[in-house]
Design goal:
- The protein has 2 helices and 7 strands, in the order E-H-E-H-E-E-E-E-E.
- The chain is an alpha+beta fold.
- Strands 1, 2, 3, 4, 5, 6 and 7 form a 7-stranded mixed sheet that branches.
- The longest helix has 10 residues.
- The two termini are 13 Å apart.
Amino acid sequence: GGGCYHVSREERLTWQDARAHCHSLQGDLAAPLHYSQFKHFILKLRLSRTYTYWIGASTAGKDEEWKWLDGRPVRWEVWGSSQPQPLYSQCLALKPAYKFVVSAEGCGESRFYICQQERLL
C-alpha cells in the first residue's frame, strides 16, 4: 500500500519516545490514510489482544482537534464508543482487545507501537 509498517512488540515506550524510535527507522508513528485498510492489515498480524499500541495522532490540548501527524483530522469512525476522553489523554493508541478501535491515552504511558515508513519513489 505504498509503505511499510514495523510493529514493536519488544519494548514499551512513551508516545514521544516511540515516535523518536520510528524516526530512527526513517519513519514515524503509523498514520494510515485509510484506517479501515490499516485495521484489516493489522488484523492479519494476529497481534496479542493483551497489549495497546501507539499510533500517530494526538492533540495538543483538551480543546484542540485530534489530528494525524500529517495534519489530517482523526475521523469519528476510528474511535470506540466512549472516546475520546478529555484532559490528560492526548495521544492515540490502537486497542486490539476492543476490535481495533483507537482510544485516547496519556502520552507518558509506556506502550508498544507501530511505525510507518513511506515508500520512496
